[in-house]
Write a structure and sequence with these properties.
Largest sheet: 5 strands, mixed
Helix content: 25-40%
Radius of gyration: 17 Å
Distance between the termini: 24 Å
């Protein structure tokens, strides 16, 4: 909202991040909330959207953000690209959530076993639009030593978080930069870990 203070924005972002972590815990434990949308609730959504965060995730079909974070219809403004690439219209979609909807939390959701990261490490690069996408991911990994996919996954996530933080155009209507955080989803356990909380969980 236009008149949101920095403290209010921080509190909202921290609360949203805690909800996403709690939602993932419910998912991992096999006790997700019910997300059945009634007719009245569906009609209420016609009045506008009020998600709790912008989320940039991967296109991997095994990692649907709303499912693994146990969120429902209207809870997340989700942008999905292979390897959390920022190519194409992804940045504009993220900016929509921050600049138009005024969301103070931007989540980058990476995951283990990411095919785009593996493709970026390959000695046989793809062509076409896929090549451009994996090339962008490869550029973010240029300082990663060797071809360790585990290390590369974390490096790609960290680099994407920092790239979004560096965007001067990413500001709420009140003029505040959003809190950009990193979450890493482990496909084996179903759990997310917070790799970078942007200081939201700091005491005081």
């Amino acid at each position: 909202m236009p008149n949101t203070t920095p403290d209010e924005a921080r509190a909202a972002a921290a609360a949203s991040l805690r909800e996403l972590v709690a939602g993932n815990r419910r998912f991992a434990e096999g006790t997700p909330a019910s997300h059945v949308v009634s007719e009245d609730e569906r009609r209420a959504l016609l009045d506008g959207q009020h998600p709790i965060a912008v989320l940039l995730g991967c296109v991997d079909a095994r990692v649907p953000p709303e499912v693994v974070l146990d969120q429902g219809v209207g809870d997340l403004l989700t942008v999905r690209t292979a390897g959390q690439s920022l190519a194409g219209v992804a940045l504009g979609s993220i900016e929509f959530g921050v600049r138009v909807l005024g969301l103070s939390l931007v989540v980058v959701l990476g995951h283990t076993g990411c095919g785009a990261v593996l493709a970026a490490l390959s000695d046989d690069p793809a062509d076409g639009h896929l090549g451009k996408l994996t090339g962008e991911v490869a550029d973010r990994l240029i300082e990663v030593v060797g071809a360790d996919p585990v290390r590369a996954t974390g490096a790609n996530l960290d680099a994407t978080v920092h790239a979004l933080r560096a965007l001067p155009s990413l500001a709420t209507p009140a003029g505040h930069a959003p809190f950009v955080v990193g979450l890493l989803y482990d496909m084996a356990t179903g759990e997310v870990s917070v790799t970078d909380d942007a200081g939201l969980f700091d005491e005081g």
